[in-house]
TrEMBL record:
Keywords in alphabetical order: Membrane, Transmembrane, Transmembrane helix
Species of the source: Bowmanella pacifica
InterPro entries in the record: N_methyl_site, Pilin-like
Protein name: MSHA pilin protein MshA
Keyword Amino-acid biosynthesis: no
Segments passing through the bilayer: 7-26
Length: 181
């Protein structure tokens, strides 16, 4: 009885095919951590959108959705025992208030309120939050973004919220920058 096996040529072809598959698939698996960070930031953005919808609903009930942040008396609303300042019905609270409002795990995320705004498009100047400031949430271990994020570093991985509204009926700016996650 004659035994048959793979020839050397067949084995080499299989090894080459496996090598091509490995080279093609490896980058997709290596970048999973970055994709996970980006997806997490999208989740935080959705949490912010949900929170501001709830706050705006409460401000509608209170009837102060038409008041600017500088009005007298200053428009506020109480959420979970905290008094939150409003600008046309949307929150302008501090970073600590937002961390509580969103129930963020402080070990995983850092929150800051940038009074000078934030550069969301890597242009070198603040394009969001220049007048009212911007809330920025970024992963622990990353550099806090600033008004100028055009310099090298890992400061292009964050969620931002800016309430620079000047009229009733507008919505705040919310977005994700994940080019360096």
């Amino acid at each position: 009885m004659k035994q048959r096996g793979f020839t050397l040529i067949e084995l080499i072809i299989v090894i080459v095919i496996l090598g091509i598959l490995a080279v093609t698939a490896a980058p997709k698996f290596i970048d999973i951590q970055s994709d996970a960070r980006g997806a997490t930031l999208q989740g935080v953005k959705a949490s912010i959108e949900t929170a501001i919808s709830g706050v705006y609903g409460k401000s509608l009930i209170a009837g102060n959705q038409g008041s600017a942040s500088g009005a007298t008396p200053a428009p506020t609303i109480t959420v979970n025992g905290q008094t939150i300042s409003l600008n046309y019905g949307y929150p302008t609270g501090t970073a600590a208030q937002w961390a509580d409002l969103l129930e963020l795990n402080i070990d995983e995320f850092k929150t800051i309120f940038l009074s000078a705004g934030v550069d969301t498009n890597n242009s070198g100047t603040a394009d969001i939050g220049a007048t009212e400031g911007a809330l920025v949430i970024y992963p622990a271990g990353y550099t806090a973004p600033s008004a100028d994020t055009s310099s090298a570093g890992n400061d292009q991985c964050f969620v931002y919220y800016s309430n620079e509204l000047t009229t009733t009926g507008s919505k705040p700016s919310i977005g994700v920058v994940d080019t360096e996650c």
